[in-house]
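FYI - complex with zinc ion, inputs then prediction.
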Amino acid sequence: MRILAIETSCDETAIAVVEAEGTLEKANFRVLGNALVSQIDIHREFGGVFPAVAKREHAKNLVPILEAALEEAELLHEDAQVIPEDVRAKISEILAREGDLAQAFFAFVSECEVPEIDAIAVTNGPGLEPALWVGITFAKALALVWNKPLIPVDHMEGHILSGLASINDKTLEIKNVASPILALLISGGHTELVLMREWLQYELIGQTRDDAVGEAFDKVARMLALPYPGGPEISRLAEPLRALGCETPKFTLPRPMIHDPSCDFSFAGLKTAVLYILKERGQLSDEEKSELALEFENACAEVLWAKTARAIEKTGAQTLVLGGGVSNNTHIRRVFTKEIAENYSNVVLRLPAPELTTDNAVMIALAGYFRSTTNLEAQPPNEIRANGNQRLA
Ligand code: KG4
Ligand code: ZN
């Protein structure tokens, strides 16, 4: 099955074409085309992602990104198409609120053959609703004009499934995954532990009671006058110090809720503790900033691991997978690898390939394929809606 997948939930406009085959137990994927534009440079000026700006940029990027993905997949063949009046009218209505997108859409589809794809998958949540909507309306318009089925995909499910895949160049494979599968989802909007006892059926084991860990990274980075997104910046300060063997930094930060018996998290206090240090000290030297960054990473990694270990104990998980932007963090990856090897050698740790940790459309294609094989909730395309707060469990 060949899937065209569209992702616009946050600040990445991404489209991929993936050839998928197999079952939930053993599935293979070949990435035929993969195009992505990051809006990070635009949002950096604002110090964060602005939904209206994200939506505008997605609308501008979608057609060129589609063209690039199809071209790479060798599925772009120029040929004048006649679009029936009733289809054109329906699509115009769907894209009415997307400004120039309608014009670019018609210009594109009226000049190219219907590509050889079997279905279109699109992220419908969670994320920024205006950003999600533009991807969904674009996907609906494509599904109509090309007469293809449309599969709504949960963004977090995409993170989990791509984390379970082993990757070799343009080929991904999901096989021999022992259940139950515990997923630690850590991103700008999420910090949660979810359990999959059966494929695609989720149980919430723990979650943050306030800020997401990625949000804490971004806020602390901003306090240290580092650019957005803050995660990689904090890591860039801390890693050289670690390489020098610095294990006891000058500053001490709390490990919020580490002794609480639940698998829940809290990161707001950690951020406030950083704020107090900055207030008390005034300006920090570059070296002090690095020490603070290092201690902040230590605190995050320790709490994330402690709660995950507790969740492994509680659930008997056989596989642990990390997903979301923060799972790209070198220190967190290192701590999890070491702890699993030393304390839970019966549990298989799956870390997403770095190129799949941040938002992309390949993961949406994977999840779209898995959804299509189980047919859990076939929805007519016109009922697919954006849900910014969508939850797996
Ligand atoms: O999954 P993602 O790309 O977008 C969503 O939030 O859905 O995650 C973005 C988050 C940001 O908060 C960013 O600071 C964080 O992931 N992040 C990192 C690293 N790379 C990205 N945090 C820590 N270390 C990193 N290397
Ligand atoms: Zn994400």
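The longest helix spans residues 286-315. The first strand starts at residue 2 and ends at 7.
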